[in-house]
Write a structure and sequence with these properties.
It is built from eight helices and 15 strands. It is an alpha+beta fold and 255 residues long. Strands 8, 9, 10, 11, 12, 13, 14 and 15 form an eight-stranded antiparallel β-sheet that branches. α1 runs parallel beside α5. The longest helix is centred in the N-terminal third of the chain and has 13 residues.
């Protein structure tokens, strides 16, 4: 039996999430449904892409991942993409290009007949697609191949020998900020040299392995589980105490 994950900006206060889950249960019975998060900032496909990109790989191959974010600007288009032997059901809002750097080669637009009588939130259409995938239909059986999808680009770090200029791409529940600087970039352009990490009002000269290596209330820099440089604060909320924000620059400079 397939497994379904849900990532959305629907929150839990209103009926919309329950309607989506109800539609899935009505079409698919007791299929396992796992909530990744429903606290994505409203319409924030960058945050959705970051979350799903780093979460989906922990689920079994063949899992079906529903990404229900920013449904208000999709012009009645529902997409199904296949990547790394996983299925992704989402809207044509640029999510796929952000999550995978470009839309996966196997991307299909769901045929109009499956969208009939669907609400603005597509609950019934999404549930029908899940039902077909669970019955081992292929996306090409109920959709048509497309390359005409919305494509967005994430900022890349600006690198030169002795310096890296990255940006904050995500801030988590604890106020920790993840940058777009990965371990390879750090090793290629900074390596074993002495350096300073600058993030707004904070600075650090070490890359730690754990938060607790640094004194409480001090800035911590480490590579997180996803392999990206994280700016945090031991027993503190870096977002508020250091004034960190999405898209804010983070510099690493050789001393």
């Amino acid at each position: 039996m397939a497994l379904v994950t849900l990532t959305s900006d629907l929150g839990t206060r209103d009926f919309h999430l329950s309607a989506l889950k109800g539609a899935i249960i009505s079409h698919c019975g007791n299929i396992p449904v796992v909530d990744v998060t429903h606290a994505i900032k409203q319409f924030d496909i960058k945050e959705a892409a970051f979350t799903v990109r780093n979460a989906y790989k922990y689920f079994p191959k063949g899992s079906i991942h529903v990404v229900h974010v920013n449904s208000s600007e999709v012009d009645s288009k529902l997409l199904v993409a296949v990547a790394d032997e996983h299925y992704f059901i989402t809207f044509d809002n640029g999510f796929l290009s952000l999550a995978f750097e470009k839309a996966p080669h196997q991307t299909y637009q769901v045929n109009d007949e499956l969208l009939e009588n669907s609400s603005l939130l597509f609950e019934e259409a999404i549930a029908k697609v899940i039902e077909l995938l669970e019955k081992e239909y292929l996306p090409k059986d109920f959709g048509h191949f497309t390359t005409e999808t919305v494509n967005l680009r994430l900022l890349k770090p600006i690198c030169s020998p002795g310096s890296v200029r990255g940006t904050i791409v995500n801030i988590d529940h604890f106020g920790n900020a993840t940058t777009n600087i990965n371990r390879k970039i750090f090793e290629d352009f900074i390596g074993e040299k002495r350096f300073t990490v600058l993030a707004n009002v904070g600075q650090s000269k070490v890359i730690s392995k754990t938060y607790s290596e640094i004194e409480e209330g001090e800035m911590v820099c480490l590579f997180n589980a996803a392999g990206y440089l994280e700016v945090a604060m031991n027993k503190g909320k870096a977002e508020s105490l250091m004034g960190l924000k999405i898209d804010m620059p983070v510099m690493i400079i050789v001393d």
